[in-house]
Protein 1
Amino acid sequence: MIPYGRQEVTEADIQAVTDVLRSPRLTQGPAVERFEKAVADYCGARHGIAVSSATAGLHLACLALRLGPGDRLWTVPTTYVATANCALYCGADIDFVDIHPRTLNMDPVALEQKLEQAAARGMLPRIVIPVHLSGHPCDMETIRGLSHRFGFRVIEDASHAMGSRGQAGIIGGCHHSDMTVFSFHPVKVVTSGEGGVITTNRDDLAESLRRLRNQGITRDPRHMNGAGEGPWFYQQIGLGYNYRLSDIHAALGASQMARVETYVRRRNELARRYDADLDGLPVMPQARPPLGRSSFHLYVIRVNPRESPRSRDDAFKEMLESGIGVQVHFIPVHTQPVYRRLGFNWGDFPQAEAYYREAMTLPLFPAMTDEEQQHTVHTLRHSLG
Ligand SMILES: *Cc1c(COP(=O)(O)O)cnc(C)c1O
């Protein structure tokens, strides 16, 4: 089986992890700070805050912006459920903005129209979360412009976008957002086993995030109510969680961060070969960003139902039967039963739904061999018809 993605763990990674296991601190030790610094420095952000997953990171990012009951959060339907779930964790209302059929990212025109309608009804969102699907950067300049005009906050879901470059530089630099959230799950560009990092340039948000990931506790007398009582003293000044990342995970993440550039270059190389080899087939790859660089966490195509003799569903099954681990990213979130119960339905976001019916993610990972890629293309050509 050729998987759609596969992590790479080197001897250096294993050494970094065993070093932690032999050390006195398995959690809240120096590896977490090293990991945070590696991510923040790479992205050019002031702060990096490590958490147990990107899901936890999205939740805390919303809490740091004080999202709560009565507030609205908007994201795209074409994402993993985590991007929308964070609104529900906070008791806020969720809504979606449709995607652009070529970029497969949030459509800035659809966003503007929806904002104008929401403004007229006094129903503007407090937070908008664009998702850099497969690492292709969203049009953040336009989204930031709209955020100034309509007064919402922006969190980037960069779970796919470690190593991507947008209009203003490396994603995670937060040039056009308040915070950026990365995932270090093993299928992503670099991994810590499980884990997430939030980057931000705002000191106040970094401070809140650090407190929220550790039960709402502070040891800083400047943030306490009243005076401290001694060296043992801490105060819980708000409700927080245990969303800490262990040093075991952080050591793996920090060690892997050294290879982001190598991985993203190799992923782009494989993507270029797919572009060339798929030419002439009844498929349309996700449109590349006009500027910058994609991490190519995923290589996503649409099977054109008018040109292809065989359906996406049939081709997908044949690929799997032939040992090619294709995937679909993503089932539109608003069609999931939990979201249907909130009143969403098929037909609400036609672009995301049309894409879903045609979508196929082809295998792409740094260790993929030329033979594996040729075999994938050959099998795709055969299964399409
Ligand atoms: C993987 C993923 C997440 C969640 O990441 P975890 O680290 O597994 O919590 C969130 N959003 C998107 C778009 C993802 O692909």
Protein 2
Amino acid sequence: MKNELLRELPSVDELTRDEGLKEAASLHSAALVTEAARAALREVRAGITSGKRSAFSKDELIALTLSRIASMTGPSVKKIINASGTVIHTNIGRAVLSKDAVDAIVFAASNNTNLEFDLVSGERGDRDSLVEEKLKRLTGAEAATVVNNNAAAVLLTLNTLAEGKEVIISRGELIEIGGSFRLPEIIKKSGCVLKEVGTTNRTHPGDYSKAINNNTALILKAHTSNYRVVGFTAEVGLKELAEIGKEYGVPVVEDLGSGSLVDLSEYGVPKEPIVADSVANGADIVTFSGDKLLGGPQAGIAVGKKALVEKLKKNHLKRALRADKLTLSALEATLRLYLNRDTLVERLPTLRHLSRPLSEIEDTAVKAVRLLEAALGKGYVIMIEDGESVAGGGSLPGQGLPTKVISITHIELGPHEIFRNFLNNDPAILGRVNRDRFLLDMRTVDDPSSVVPSGC
Ligand SMILES: *Cc1c(COP(=O)(O)O)cnc(C)c1O
């Protein structure tokens, strides 16, 4: 029986000559169609041999081949509707760019530009100059340089200023960020020697000054961006650290992580450290991400004292870590938005979502519920509830933002099944499961119809 069925399977040649695959063959290379047909036949053959399959049809083989072709040639970047409640979600690409930044990327991608070319002298220029003036203006720093991400900015800073020497850091700030950014490892990979001081919960000024010796190259302060130490705690503020640094002639570097360019409390959002404050408080170098609170492209920015930033730029590692023209263009366009505070919120999606008024979130929820009720059919219970969103991206740890969520339950389906069903939609709809309920957080959803699955 099995052998008979196996003998009935067409050859790869026969299958690819079939009418049903003719069109595919004309759209793609013959080799690709052959590969897909071979894989489809292999799958069916394995099914027959293992006894899982007792029949097959030609249409089935063709459909299998076509779906192989589709997965081989289709785009692997898929859209996700973010209803997760995390505004800056690293796993789904953090900040959604402003239209200005998107336009800048298209412009830079479609043209040759003055990326590293000085139009006045006609000679080679410095790619940082595309953004440096604006970064100086927005942070009050003397100079700035840009690399691929903040991890790279920390690496470049440590390697440039402290290779082969000691870096002093409080035990309370030896952070790990998602995606295996561990500060002790980065310090090691930068060629520096980690010198921990203080304890997990308490570090005092004397801990730093006592640790300084002839081999000390810098004092590092890291923003504990994804957790908070509460209770019996003591931390040495940047201002005080900068004074210690000055007294002993040791530069002080702050890894701010998210680092905001504006005071978020002016927009009704809990305050996050502001880059300009760190500069004003005496940090010699401040590093932060381009795609966290700043709301721009993935990038790492180091601002600070001119003499030190010049050293960063001259390090050969900079060449390996430098940002590309698309990133720099998008970053420049994003920074330009910050020059006009009156229009910043409406034009910068990250800030707009973080500061979105509750009434507007509720409006979107009400509209979405109506559409969901019409689309989901029987068995579902759909309600609007109060909830909490988080900023994400290592910002505002432990501080929820009041929001409105749509909770969806079903008489038979569990919350994880509903979660999966929404995720399997095209485009995928990313909610979250909380206490046995599937939730859609409307804070980051602009169009209520976007959270309605199409195939139900
Ligand atoms: C997020 C973060 C980093 C890493 O930044 P990337 O831009 O993701 O490389 C480093 N330090 C701190 C404190 C952070 O919050």
